[in-house]
Give the backbone structure.
Amino acid sequence: MSDTEKPAETSALAYTASRVARHLHWARTEGIRRLIEEDRLDPRDRLRTAAAKWLWRRRRGVKPGSAVAVYVVGLQRSGTNMLMRGLDAAPEVEVRNENDRRLFHRFRMRSDDVLRQTVARSRHAFVLVKPLCDTHRIDELLDLPGLAPGRAVWMFRDVDDRARSEVSKFRESNLLALRRIADGTSGMDWQGQRLSDPLRELISGFDYGQMTPYSAAALFWYVRNSLYFDLGLDARDDVLLASYDELVSDPEGSMRRVCDFVGLPYRAELSDLVERRIAHQRPPLDIDPKVRSRCNAMAAQLESALHPASGATADHDTRKGPGR
């Protein structure tokens, strides 16, 4: 979080209880194995990775102050964990995920000074940071004085697949956040930061007493991905737009593209950890028609930005759900 006034927080006990309940829900709905994989809870995996990084620092570590910050941003449940897991296999990469207490507090970035200090002290070539709740500040983080020029990777995912994953993990979280933005009670909540007036007007135009969690998750997908264009990130050469759907359908090609952008040598183990799958296997969700229309337009805009030379129209543009 920037050095500005911070929002009021729930007590440590209530926050911990909420996290425990959420993890129990994930374990029940998605299984212990999936939870262990996603949160990297297997100590054997952690020890192997830590040993490889220690050896790299010992043999080839860079001088403090030389590391390049690489930010992985976008929207929750968009494949950022999978990308982070793949890049973490590179020993020259130091990973600072959003549960890293040195750099984050309750998934929000601590002060800019803490970020500067963390990157400056690293003896790795790259410091990989995932500030999802501070995605709206990525232009500011890239331009932060006192750091070497960094890079950012903006991940996006098919709206229906992301909405299913979001509701499965966080249930009504997006619905409640949009309601707070609409009624003006979001305050300093990250969900309402740096939204344009047209976005706020759009959010205020829905009845959240009637909206389903899936429609809310789709609307939040639209709002959050709009920032990629509203902040002018599509015009920056230090921001790479990346697709989760392409990552899982072509792990090697997608990971090579990210590595080339970052300046990290590609090796097979970086894509070996990406689970290959085919997206869009399930029927479209029943999404509010007004939300669906916005999402179709955004999907086409993202696909056009991802492949500007092809001029291809996104598959999402022709998807029709029960709500259309």
Q: What stands out?
A: Residues 12-30 form the longest helix (19 residues). The radius of gyration is 19 Å.
